[in-house]
Task: structure prediction
Amino acid sequence: MLEFNLFRPQSLQETLDLLAEFKGTARVLAGGTDLLISLRAKEGMEDVRNVIDITGLQELAFIQERDLLEIGPLTTIAQVAEDSVLRQNAGVLAEAAAAVGSPQIRNRGTIGGNVVNAAVCADTVPPLVALGATVKLERKGGSRWLPLDQFITGPNRTQLAEDELLTKIAFAKLPANASWGFMRLARREALAIARMNVAVIIVRDGQGKVEHARIVPGSVLSRPTGVPEAEKLLVGTHPDEALAHQAGEAVAAAMTSSGRRWSTPYKEPAIIALTERAIKQALEVEWR
Result:
């Protein structure tokens, strides 16, 4: 374990002051399910001299229903999974949160940590991107908002500056005519990180024709983003099994656009099937 100075600020402003003072040598401790492992392994932590423990900042633990749905970064994964407002207005996120890790991990890990860590396998990130989430980043003396799909720039890489803190995640409620699907593939049913996952949101008109579609895979692209080629296939149609399969093929094509690897023969049919199943779940149909 690395040796470091530990600080426990009592307010958001005190946290921002510490980040400014120790810019470049500090890490923020929220749930700690990722950071503590890295500190023990000392991997990528060579410059860390200070750890700022924000677990006591209740002002950053909230789920609010306003014009937008707003989630504080210290809200636990379990709270996201169980919250009735999120289940009603953003069920795809609640479903994905319920699939994370184990009860112990969900009770300790935070939504902010899941986002800032930016692991390609993070289960909550594809649903958040599909929901059009934006994140608020604060530093001493200022703040800014970024769309989540721009905030995360690659595996474990974000636009978070060394003196910034993620303080809010916000997104619109799903409309009444929206439905969703979330599928993941892991080595076990639980207690295993996702090998790949996919979030689907579909909005249909009164005749059941698709007006809007979002298909966001995880663990297969360099950063979380929708796949327009797959989404366009669904818009303006009454999707059937064949069309859902084509959408899955479009997601697989996006995955392989950067090249084929030794794992591609396994991943290609897997992401096609996951996408099909997520679309099927969103449409609430029984093809087979």
Notes: The domain at 5-53 is CATH 3.30.43 (Uridine Diphospho-n-acetylenolpyruvylglucosamine Reductase; domain 2). The chain has three domains: 5-53, 61-171, 178-283.
